[in-house]
Amino acid sequence: MKKVTKRSPVGQDCPMVDLTPPARITKIFNKLAMYSTLWDVHTLEVARRNAVDPQRVPVIPLELDGCIFVVSTRGESDWVKNVRVAGKVRLGQKGQFETYTTTEVPADCRAEIVKAYRKKAGREVNGYFKKLPGPPDNPTFKLTPALTQT
Q1: Helix (H, G, I), strand (E, B) or coil at 133
Q2: CA distance 143 to 140
Q3: Which of 1, 61, 111, 130 would you label with 16, given CA atoms 20 to 30 Å apart?
């Protein structure tokens, strides 16, 4: 686990945590999770900052008060950095994707969203939350449907 204090992209000084697992685990688990619809797992696809091929990761989207959110259970992971730069993502299941623009939720506004996310995702993510001190360590993005679908 890496932990450094720096200024977050939403303008707050806070510890930024990255719980990136070993690459071999990510490679195997992510592929299995993205081909499953168990636990409402979706595939999030985002343009990489430093590669041609898009990054694809499994996420459990949360619908709260008519809005869709994605929460990083592993802190400052690579996909979070890619979403910040790209400003848009594709989200879907079994090859049916919709395009969304993204807005990062400020750290001090994440508590209600993270609480609802933990309730929805349950035991699948509890281990990660034990390692992260609170909502500021869970980058959260609000997804807004883009004007054109791809």
Answers
A1: coil
A2: 10
A3: 61
Write down the CATH superfamily of domain 22-145.
Electron Transport, Fmn-binding Protein; Chain A (2.30.110.10)
- Report whether pLDDT(1) > 50: no
Token output for 90:
């594709």
**CA distance readout (Å), 74 to 18, 20, 64, 99, 114:** 6, 6, 21, 23, 13
pTM: 0.76
Q: How far apart are CA 75 and CA 71, in angstroms?
A: 9
95 phi and psi angles, rounded to 5 deg: 85, -5
The stretch 39-45 carries a mean pLDDT of 86
